Amino acid sequence: MLSRCRFLAGLALLAGFMAFSIAPAAELDPIAPSDSNVVMKLNIKQLLDSPLIKKHALDIIKGMLKDPTAQTVLNAIGLDPLKDLDSITLTAAGDAKNPRVLIVLRGKFDAAKINVALEAHAKTEKGKDLKSSKEGRLTIWEAKNDKNTMYTTVASPTAIVMSPEKPYLVKGVNDEGRNPLNPDLKAAAGKIPGQESFWLVAVVTDEIKKQLASNENTKKYADNLKAMTAALTVSDALQLNLQVQTSNPMVAGELKGLAEQFKMVAVQLGALQAGEALAPLVQDILGKQLKINTDKTALVIDLKVTEDQIKKIVENAPKK
């Protein structure tokens, strides 16, 4: 009996250790191209289920969706945004002059209905610039205006993919699950729990490092910066977490010092801009609730704003 109890206790301990060891982390979409150096995700499901949105914004969103034009479009493509949309992920690669962008909508999609609706729209005057083509199993829709072109495809019943570059879109979809992503990008994403309303991961590329190295004020940090993450959680409050990943604890410490100096200035300027009614509240939020720390080689900034504070800001904001 004693040995059996010890065995069960051992199993419980092992299970607890495993649960701790495999804590959830932000998942990079399997369609994300291998050259991605920025990934951001909006978790629509989490946002709509959050107490703040349910209490203060959901009725407004529902009212907007009742618009006759919106209803006509949504019925035609068989989509209920409040039930069928899970998330939107945007990836970016390249540099500022030649960016490569991919957008992935995750949810439940009826490819047949969507394609039929687009075909019907393409025959109208408003849809004259909408064209379709085939790339293997994919139907690619090309939409143009005076300045931009966007390509879109229903890649699967759970994914709609968009990009300004057709070959980039097709490669991203066809390589789903086989894209070897930047190790620094994956490591930085692993620092985010993954249940946030919005998160962003960005790798400090060689181009950015060159730009930092050319500036007297930032050149000493250039070779030590690896990635940046931002995460916003909407629940019964707003919680923001920012991290700058470096390769050196001393650099993280120096960045902490710079962030604390910026915080002091932000408290003063924020109070001045807020006006007499909101100045004390802004001082509390920025002065007391904005926390700046380091975690080994990372600069970590946290901020929490409560529902009552949000209400006071809205109620006392200058009326235009």
Report what the structure shows:
It is a single chain. This protein is α+β, with helices and mostly antiparallel strands and 320 residues long. The chain has a domain at 26-247. It is built from 13 helices and twelve strands. It has helices at 2-21, 44-49, 51-56, 58-65, 68-77, 81-84, 111-122, 166-174, 183-189, 206-213, 249-274, 279-289, 307-316; strands at 38-43, 85-94, 99-107, 130-135, 138-144, 149-156, 159-163, 198-203, 225-234, 237-246, 291-295, 298-306. The chain has a twelve-stranded antiparallel beta sheet with strand order 4-5-6-7-3-2-1-8-9-10-12-11, with helices on both faces. Strand 5 and strand 6 (149-156) form a beta hairpin. Helix 11 (249-274) packs antiparallel against helix 12 (279-289). The termini are far apart. The model is unreliable at 1-23 (pLDDT under 50).
Broad structural category: alpha+beta
Major beta-sheet overview: 12 strands, antiparallel
Q: State Rg.
A: 24 Å
Uncertain stretches of 5 or more adjacent residues: 1-23
Overall shape: it is globular
How are strands sequenced across the largest beta sheet? 4-5-6-7-3-2-1-8-9-10-12-11
> What is the string of helix and strand elements?
HEHHHHHEEHEEEEHHEHEEHHEEH
Distance between the termini: 75 Å
Please, what is the average pLDDT? 89
